[in-house]
Amino acid sequence: MNELEARLHYPLGDTLPAAGESIEVAPGVRWLRMPLPFALNHINLWLLRDAVERDGQMVDGWTVVDTGIHNPETIALWEQVFATQLDGLPIVRVIVTHMHPDHIGLADWLCQRFQAPLWISAGDYYVARLGVMGPTAFGGERAAAFFAAHGLNSPEAVAQIEARTNYYPSLVPSVPLQYRRLMDGQRIRIGTQTWRCMAGFGHAPEHMALHCEVLNLLLGGDMMLPRISTNVSVFETEPESDALSLFLDSIDRFLPLAENTLTLPSHGKPFVGLHERIRQLHDHHAQRLAEVMEACTGRACSALDVLPVLFPRAMDMHQTTFAMGECVAHLHRLWHQGALHRSRDAQGVYRFSSVR
């Protein structure tokens, strides 16, 4: 545990759910953990005890929050969950916090299996629908051109990104054709409890966290992680965006919640210390911004130039594209604030330099 983590409290200690099993973290709230084939090797999913009306009758069951990616291993673990963790009850609702593959990958499979509706924000639903149709910001010619314009323009890198046209559909082969819209401030009755939707931006188009005041729980999704900082990136689909400012403004919306709120993150362990973690994330990005500003003071830098400043470790191309997106996000915050000037050199690469 590092120094920052030591300032947080983990009520369950090092206890983790075994594969295909769950742990109750609050009355009617169970924690599942599914593997991921990435450097970030797991995602937390949540089961909320529920009851919904169908054809004039109340049906007891479970609401699922997030689903894991669509692959045989995750499907097999879900089958184990159905057999042993649901008390013989069905899934009656699927809530997805946002459109990233580890969160929505199996939503269509779950919804069809149980004839359960999908609940998700409109922004993330429609981006997911586009994602399953073909190339997205994670790969293809337009993504390769965007990253090349920010310095990642070697023939090898361009070829790898251009060839990566099936990334999203390979993990999310389909999404439901209908959905129920989640909106900021909306209150949802799940079982005996009321949960309030809290929209967040910068990580996904319209990420939805859920807060239950009675249980003192925050389902933080990817907006509030205890150990790592959420990826905040600019991609080719919104190339001028100020994603980092959106993210930092969004996490401040959690400040009115109680400091002792039990936060249930999508990655890492449930923790207490919400306000402390918000301060840590602001401090982290302030330090990264200062480092980027210093790099751009001596010379005009591209995102590729600041990549080793923010990410001084070896990365594969999958990690590099996300890291590049985050570099652009830090540069863009300073650019939008007027601290950096943006220009384009003879090779068509964007470069950022101090205006001081």
List keywords for this structure.
single chain; seven-stranded mixed sheet; 15 strands; 24% strand; globular
What does this protein look like?
This protein is an alpha/beta fold and 356 residues long. It has one domain: Ribonuclease Z/Hydroxyacylglutathione hydrolase-like (Metallo-beta-lactamase, Chain A), CATH 3.60.15. It contains 12 helices and 15 strands. The chain has helices at residues 3-6, 72-84, 101-104, 107-114, 122-131, 141-149, 155-163, 167-171, 243-251, 274-298, 303-310, 317-336, and strands spanning 23-26, 29-35, 42-54, 57-65, 91-95, 118-121, 180-182, 187-190, 193-200, 207-212, 217-221, 262-265, 271-272, 340-344, 350-354. It has a 7-stranded mixed sheet with strand order 1-2-3-4-5-6-7. Strand 12 (262-265) and strand 13 form a beta hairpin. Helix 10 crosses helix 12 (317-336) and helix 11 (303-310) crosses helix 12. It is globular and about 65 Å long. The two termini are 40 Å apart. The model has no long low-confidence stretch (mean pLDDT 96).
Structural topology:
Blueprint lengths: L2 H4 L16 E4 L2 E7 L6 E13 L2 E9 L6 H13 L6 E5 L5 H4 L2 H8 L3 E4 H10 L9 H9 L5 H9 L3 H5 L8 E3 L4 E4 L2 E8 L6 E6 L4 E5 L21 H9 L10 E4 L5 E2 L1 H25 L4 H8 L6 H20 L3 E5 L5 E5 L2
Helix pairs in contact: 6-7, 10-12, 11-12
